[in-house]
Amino acid sequence: MKIISLHKKEEQLIALVKKQDRASQKKMFDQFAPKMLGVCRQYVKNIHDAEDVMLCGFMKVFQNIHQFEHKGSFEGWIRKIMVFESISFLRSRKEMLFTEEISYKETLAEDHVSFYEIEALQHMIDTLPAGCKTVFILYVIEGYKHQEIADMLMISEGTSKSQLANARKLLQNQLKKKEFYNGAF
Amino acid sequence: MERFEKDLKEKFLKREIAPSEETRSRFEMLLDNTDKKHRFANSKKIAMAAASVFLLGGLLMYWFRTVVKEQMTEPYKTEQQFVKHSDTKVEEKKDLVAEKSQESSHKSNKEPFIKTTPAPVSEVTEKDSTEQKEIPQLAQSVQEITTQEPEFHSQQGEVISQRIKVSPQKLLNVIEYEKQIEYLAANSKSMQQIFRELRVKMVNINIEKKNSDAKK
Hints:
The complex is a heterodimer of chains A (185) and B (216).
Chain A: H1 2-18, H2 22-43, H3 47-63, H4 74-92, H5 118-126, H6 130-141, H7 146-153, H8 157-178
Chain B: H1 2-14, H2 21-73, H3 79-110, H4 121-164, H5 168-215
C-alpha cells in the first residue's frame, strides 16, 4: 500500500512539474538532488563541477519531462540524464581520453581514510584515467553492456572492453598495495 | 576483485551527497531565469497571435471594402448573375417584340383598305342611297373649307407678323410650321379629292352594275 501511495505521489509530482509548477520543481530537486549529485560525483572529480553538472541535468529534466512516458522508474530516467550530462561535461573538458597506456596517479591518502568509507573508494576510482573510469562506472555500477557503452561514448566495443580491463588492472594494483582485498584476488 | 566491485556498486548506488546552500540558491536563480524566459516566450506567442489576428482582421476589412463592395455595386460580376441578367433582358426584349407585333396588328386592323374584305354588292347598293345624299354635303363642306382657307391663312399671316416682332428664331419656326400646315392642307385636300373620286367611282360602278342587271 505504501509503495502504491508513493508511486501516486510521484506521478502527481511529475504532473505538476510538467505544468512548470515551481514549488513542485523545488520539491523534486530536494527529493532527487542528493542521489543525483552522488551519480555526477562518480564521473566528475571536483564536487563543484559535479554540482554544476547536476544543476544542468535538473534543468534538462524540467525541460524534457513531457518526454517521460511512465514506462520505467522516474529515478532511473533522471539518473540516465545525469550520466549523459556528466559524460558530455567530461567531453567538453577533453578529459575523456581512451589510451592503452596504464597509468594512474597515486594520490590516495591512505592514512586519512578507511577503505570501508565510500569517499575512499571514490578517491581510488578518481585516480584512474577519465576514459577507463567512465567505462568502469558504466559497466560495474550502472550495469550497461559493452555495446551500449560503446554507443554512448562513441567508441568501439573492443575499446570499451580494453578500457574496462585496464581499469580493473589499475584498481587491482591499488588494492594490492593497500592489502585490503587480499583474500579476494 | 568481484567482491570489491559488488561493494562498490552497493555503496555507490546508495550514495547521497547533500548539495550545498550555494547550489540550492543557484538552482532557484536558474528557475527564476527559466520562468522569465518562459514568460517572455509566452508573451511573445501572445503578441504574435494578436498581431496575426489584427492582420487577418485588416485583410478581411480590406477584402470586404474592395471585393464585396464592388460586387454590390456591380451586380453582374459573377457569371451566374450575368447569365440571369442576360436571361431577363432577353425576356424583356421578347415581351417588347410581342407588344410591338400586337400594336402593329392593331394598326393594320385599323387600316380599312388593306385588311378589310370588300363588302358584298348588296350592301354597297343599300349604302348608295345614303352616299348619294352625303355627296352634296361633302361638296358643301369642301366649298366651305376652300372659302375659309384664305381667311385662315390671313389670320396665320397676322400671327406670323406678330411673331416676327418677337424673335428671328421664332419666325423661322413659324415658317416651318406654316410649311407643315400647308403641306398638311395640301395632303388633306388631295386625300379628300381621292376619297371623293373613289366614292364617285364606286357609285358609278354600282350604277353600271345595276343597269347591266336591269338590262339582263
